[in-house]
Amino acid sequence: xxNMNKSSIAIxxxxxxxTAISSAPAQAxxxxxxxxxxxxxxxxxxxxxxxxxxxxxxxxxxxxxMASQGSLGYTSIQAWARLDTxxxxxxxxxxxxxxxxxxxxxxxxxxxDRDFYLIQTNxxxxxxxxxxxxxxFDLIDYRIPGVSLVGKLAENYANGFTSGTEQxxxxxxxxxxxxxxxxxxxxSNNISWKDANQVIGSKKNSGAAxxxxxxxxxxxxxxxxxxxxxxxxxxxxxxxxxLKIWSNYAYVNHTLN
Length: 257
Prior knowledge:
With 257 residues, the chain is α+β, with helices and mostly antiparallel strands. Helix content is 23%, strand content 37%. The strands form 3 sheets. Strands 4, 6, 7, 8, 11, 12 and 13 form a 7-stranded antiparallel β-sheet that branches. A 5-stranded antiparallel β-sheet has the order 1-2-3-9-5.
């Protein structure tokens, strides 16, 4: 009987350990579906000035999902620039480009601050710095005078040029993921802000898509405001360093649980 009891205890302990090990990743992966929380736009710049014709300067859509068990949650933000607006307002004197798109996840109440913690983003921090070596231009300058000058200009333009994503989660209640010099980041003004993507991933070929992962303590209702804004660069024919301006934030206030 004693041996039987020991065996039974060993089996029970083994089952508990197995259950704990196997259920942990299952719980982490058992996320609910994304629920669309809203679309938003801003027609202003951070200077407080409104864009031409009241057209939008940034558009965003956001969705959230929570684990069926546990406190893990995800919020997705997709954001777009509006180069059509900038072209209508600033051409032919300036040629606008998209320098950066900043996405932000933040809480909006004191109670939410206490129970909400950002833990990571997807994509994560991956800043890439680019440079051009003008040495090759110097080598052929003796054959084509002026080439070295072109090389210097190219070097000055490219050095310090960055791309990729810049993550800042130093404040776990208010984190950002910024897309640097993103490609294909603009949404045509022919597409209403109301028709922008409702769920991240449905149109991966446009805009900037960020996912914020977080935990929520005590199962309390959390008030958040996913946000996005765009930094534009205004070039002239005589400059290689653009004038940079930010749009105002577009945001959606909602609750997580």
